Amino acid sequence: MTLSVSVQPQSARPGRSILKRIAWTAFGLLAISAFLFTSLPILKPTNPMHDLLYSQRWLLFPHIAGGLTVLILGPLQFSRTLRERYPARHRLLGKCYIAGVLVAAIPAALMARHYPAFLPYSVTINALLWLTSTAAAFLAARNRRFEQHRRWMARSYAMTATFIIPRIPLPIYNRMNLDSASYFLLAVAVLSLLSADLIVDWRVLTGGRFRSSLS
Q1: End-to-end CA, the chain
Q2: What is the mean pLDDT of each run of 10 residues along the chain (215 residues)?
Q3: Count of C-beta atoms within a 10 Å radius of residue 201
């Protein structure tokens, strides 16, 4: 006698889905606050940085457009539903995400050349890490190494946080000089990459069955 067993794919637990939505919503609100209270005021003529940024507006505006594209498309790329039901759309949005990183990261590095103190180096290092992690995610996907692809995508999107967290209006920033801000930017990059790996491997680290927490 032959016993036939069918295995149904596991669906995401409701509690886990809610936590993911809360996390994405919180990050979105942080990004909006950073844009409204830090980025927009810099563009005002009364801001000390206005003249420098206006002279680089042909780099600044693509940088902003690319950054917004990455911020919006990133969460969609981690959607299991989009990945499994609409793979063609997932790939298309992935290409748009890569384009957004290129358009945002390269102008950021070019604009940083005119910044004072250690800022040119910290911004350039962060931009290179962003480009490298995104390129690694693309190569992994092209070679059908999808688990590695998810990991590198998590690191790539984590690098996006390095352009958001320093712009969140917190009182501690008012006490930093330019050198401190430069080192803080690098620290944010390291912590963002570490956080990405912790999130991806959370179930392994807590003794659960391996499964990417971002999938």
Answers
A1: 38
A2: 42 62 74 71 72 82 89 87 90 95 93 80 91 95 92 91 71 67 82 84 64 52
A3: 16
